[in-house]
Specification:
heterodimer; A: 308 residues; mainly alpha; 12 helices; flat; B: 577 residues; alpha+beta; D-Maltodextrin-Binding Protein, domain 2; Dipeptide-binding Protein, domain 1; Dipeptide-binding Protein, domain 3; eleven-stranded mixed sheet; four-stranded antiparallel sheet
């Protein structure tokens, strides 16, 4: 197991390097630069600034310099936020996104699985139809609609919760609900589908014919198998959800990392964009690894060291 | 199937969920920050719209930085409570030499940094030396180029810089006397020193910490407030500076600047009383709701929205064509139906209300307001240029940056040109940096643009169209125009200076490298219990007042030194809402 994990982690390095390389050159090929603004700066001043950030060097040299600084764990200075480094920006904003994302994912997975299973066990009844109709609504109503509606009703009219901002426990509630809705609905649908499939499997019927109580059959035998598709969905989804949702952060004014994906690119803040891309890449790879490890526990047929 | 059993077994699991949720909620650092303002004294909360990119006065560039830096720092001069005229700030006296080239500022001896140390003339000199130092990479260094030797320092090679610095026209005659020697008499120099590029830096702190002097634990400032908290993407919190020389006149105890970017969210925050001032324009989707609201106000702003031509490219190299296109625009329609926040149609270029010393700029030449006549003349001009009825006129591009309002203005303009002149324009939408890149390289036919004055003097608008100006972006140049603007720098007589500008503007409108469309307004929302805010709103003489006339806060500066909250009125307001 440990050997497998080490091998996988080592395998991430070349993937990361490819991602860094592609992003680096794509960023530089976009028109305009980090210091272009509506009020043009004199060429001499521009030269000064470019020299300060080594942007006057040939691109390949900048690339090597950048890769070397990453190896040392330094993501570089932000061009837009000139008194901050990318490390400090991500260090400050990622925990915020992580908290919101983790809570949302946790709610989505637990309640989604639970509701999905109930729908499956009560297949084709009113409960099933009601739950699945809600799931369809959850999937179809986008964040950018649900968020403002919640903010207006709960924040502006009822004045129960703050409409936006960060700092107290109250600030978590609306964004987490908004963010989790979509994922909860998806997980519920996956859970229902996979549970329906599992309870028709022969090993469940065997368990039933042995006269095991329904509770034992469901929790000990069916649950494990039914969780597999949910786990494989949640891996990559978690990576994206905890690196921040641009929409949620905008609507609720949350100081998370999500906003820098878009803002960094529009500002041509090369280092900030690189930093966020590296962050997401690492998380996606780590979560995929976690999914594979979870598989091994959930499905006895899968052995990590048997590489096919 | 026993659903009850399933539910029972999941009870533990639900309890677990709740406990995790509670644990996480405990992570919220500062506890509830709402509704505790009464304990914190007088708090003013506003939306700055964006994070300041930096708190370094030598490196800052934009309007978001301007607002924040003015809370924390004070320059030699500052804007008065009406936001229009400059008054003495950190300096208590100012003298100008007869030729207007030497300005001497005498600093207050009671002016202190927030650590209690004195603000001296050396702090100013250090600031100017740092902003002009090529290795600082200051984007706004050119604001100081009117100082003798400043450009030379900023453009010097590292080995020559020391030599150039010795020739720099800023000197600390003693601890409290600062002398500027200018390249030419700059009639608006006093106003110019309100700009943050002229602010001092705490020399010793900067020497000790270098570029990280602006970090929360290092920074000290000399303005009415000091930084207490800075959360990127969320807010900046300021508290009253106990060492500020005028601390007894400051009524606010605390200022919170939220950096919420989304306009809809901003409006919801205002609606839910989470902020007292929404200083950026409300989103167009909520605009109809607030237009008649007494909390919404709009005032003329120092800025012009215009189209510019690539004057090297045929057929726009012909002034007659450019003028024809300019005349064919119904500015009234655009200002009334598209922008609709009280913007004035621009029949000339320099915004109304722009200062000229103690007076105001008035144009001597304006396009006619008779649209029918204008169209007739436009058709005639286009025919003279060889395109009768628009025949043979190539399809041209109209460059703009992604923004709903820009798009609609460009659409309406192209429709007017098509309908009245029979010529076709194609809209070309670009994201911001790509748009800037095309603008910079004059890689367009017609472009949507705007210009906001850096300081309250017509020069900030006039210098833009000099052939040497880096922001011209049209290829247009006129020796006569350049000459007049250059002369204005040496003209200390206000009347003569005005005449120079007026005649230069005539050349500009005659040659039409640009099509002025409207003058911007600054619209914002302010709670009725906010006092000391200009235009004042407690008297009800705000917002819908006739913004074409009267005295207005054209710079949209709202000094926090003068703002306060009427707690009684606020209480009443909160109860009513």
């Amino acid at each position: 197991m440990l050997g497998y994990i080490i091998r996988r982690v080592l395998g991430m390095i070349p993937v990361l390097l490819i991602i860094i390389t592609i992003t680096f050159f794509l960023m530089r090929s976009a028109p305009g630069g980090p210091f272009d603004s509506e009020k043009t700066i004199p060429d001499e001043v521009r030269k000064n600034i470019e020299a300060k950030y080594h942007l006057d060097e040939p691109v390949y040299q900048q690339y090597l310099r950048y890769v070397w600084s990453i190896v040392q764990g330094d993501l570089g200075p932000s061009y837009k936020y000139s008194d901050r480094t990318v490390n400090s920006i991500i260090g400050e904003s990622f925990p915020v996104s992580f908290q919101i994302g983790f809570l949302a994912m946790f709610i989505a997975v637990t309640f989604g699985t639970y509701l999905g299973f109930i729908a499956a066990l009560k297949q084709n009844t009113v409960i099933d139809y009601t739950l699945m109709s809600f799931a369809i609504v959850g999937i179809s109503v986008p964040n950018m609609v649900l968020g403002p509606i919640l903010a207006v009703i709960v924040g502006v009219y009822l004045k129960w919760l703050p409409v936006a901002g960060w700092g107290s426990w109250e600030h978590y509630i609306l964004p987490v609900i908004t963010l989790s809705c979509y994922y909860l609905a998806i997980v519920a649908r996956i859970a229902r589908g996979s549970m329906l499939e599992v309870i028709r499997q022969e090993y469940i019927q065997t368990a039933r014919s042995k006269g095991l109580p329904e509770r034992v059959i469901l929790l000990r035998h069916a649950l494990k198998g039914a969780l597999l598709p949910i786990v494989s969905y949640c891996g990559p989804a978690s990576a994206f959800i905890i690196t921040g949702s641009i929409v949620i952060e905008q609507i609720f004014s949350i100081p998370g990392v999500g906003r820098y994906f878009v803002q960094g690119a529009t500002d041509r803040d090369y280092t900030l964009v690189m930093g966020t891309v590296i962050l997401v890449s690492i998380l996606v790879m780590v979560f995929n690894l976690l999914v594979d490890i979870a598989y091994c526990f959930l499905d006895p047929r899968i052995k990590l060291h048997e590489k096919k | 199937m026993n659903i009850v059993q399933v539910l029972k077994s999941s009870r533990i699991f639900i309890l677990f969920c709740l406990s995790v949720a509670l644990t996480f909620s405990a992570c919220g650092k500062n506890g509830n920050q709402n509704n505790t303002q009464e304990d914190e004294g007088m708090v003013f909360r506003f939306l700055n719209e964006q994070d300041p990119a930096t708190l370094d006065v030598n490196k800052a560039t934009g309007v978001y930085e301007n607002r924040i830096l003015n809370i924390m720092f004070e320059g030699l001069t500052r804007y008065g409570n009406e936001g229009v005229a400059a008054e003495l700030g950190n300096a208590e006296r100012h003298e100008t030499s007869e030729d207007g080239k030497v300005h001497t500022f005498f600093l207050r001896k009671d002016a202190k940094w927030s650590d209690g140390s004195a603000v001296t003339a050396h702090d100013y000199v250090a600031s100017y030396r740092r902003i002009l130092n090529p290795t600082t990479g200051a984007q706004y260094a050119q604001m100081l180029y009117c100082i003798a030797g400043a450009a030379e320092v900023n453009q010097s090679k590292p080995d020559k810089m020391k030599l150039e610095l010795e020739k720099l026209g800023v000197k600390a005659l003693d601890d409290y006397t600062l002398e500027f020697t200018l390249k030419y008499p700059v009639p608006y120099f006093f106003e110019l020193t309100t700009h943050y590029t002229f602010f001092p830096i705490p020399r010793k702190v900067v020497e000790k910490h270098g570029d990280s002097w602006t970090s929360k634990k290092n920074i000290i400032s000399n303005g009415a407030f000091v930084l207490k908290e800075r959360v990127l993407g969320d807010k900046l919190v300021f508290e009253k500076n106990p060492h500020y020389w005028q601390k007894d006149a400051i009524k606010l105890d605390k200022v919170i600047a939220y950096t919420t970017k989304d306009h809809e969210t901003q409006y919801r925050m205002f609606q839910s009383n989470a902020v007292d001032w929404l200083c950026s324009p409300v989103s167009k989707s909520v605009y109809p709701k607030v237009k008649d609201n007494s909390e919404w106000l709009a005032a003329p702003y120092l800025g012009t929205f215009f189209f510019s031509f690539n004057t090297k490219k045929a057929p726009f190299n012909d002034p007659r064509v450019r003028r024809a296109l300019s005349l064919a625009i119904d500015r009234e329609v655009i200002a009334k139906t598209i922008t609709d926040a009280g913007e004035l149609p621009a029949y000339s270029y320099v915004p109304k209300g722009t200062a000229m010393g103690s007076g105001k700029y008035t144009p001597t030449y304006e396009f006619s307001k008779n649209y029918k006549e204008n169209i007739k003349e436009a058709k005639k001009l286009l025919a003279e240029a060889g395109f009768p009825g628009g025949k043979g006129f190539p399809v041209f591009n109209i460059l703009y940056n992604i923004n709903d309002q820009n798009k609609r203005i460009c659409l309406v303009a192209s429709n007017m040109w098509d309908r009245h002149l029979g010529i076709k324009g194609k809209l070309e939408n670009n994201e911001w940096k790509t748009y800037l890149d095309k603008l910079k390289n004059v890689n367009y036919d017609i472009a949507r643009r705007g210009w906001i004055g850096d300081y309250n003097d017509a020069y900030t608008f006039m210098e833009l169209w000099m052939s040497s100006n880096g922001n011209n972006h049209t290829h247009w140049g006129n020796a006569d125009y350049d000459d007049k603007i250059n002369k204005s720098n040496y003209e200390s007589d206000l009347k003569n200076r005005l005449v120079l500008f007026q005649s230069a503007e005539e050349i500009l409108l005659e040659e039409s490298p640009i099509i002025p469309i409207y003058f911007y307004v600054a619209d914002q929302m302010v709670k009725p219990y906010v006092r000391g805010f200009y235009p004042r709103i407690q008297n009800g003489d705000h917002g819908k007042a006739d913004i074409a006339g009267g005295k207005f806060n054209v710079t949209d500066n709202h000094p926090f030194n003068y703002i306060w909250i009427d707690q009684e009125a606020k209480k009443k307001y909160m109860q009513g809402n």
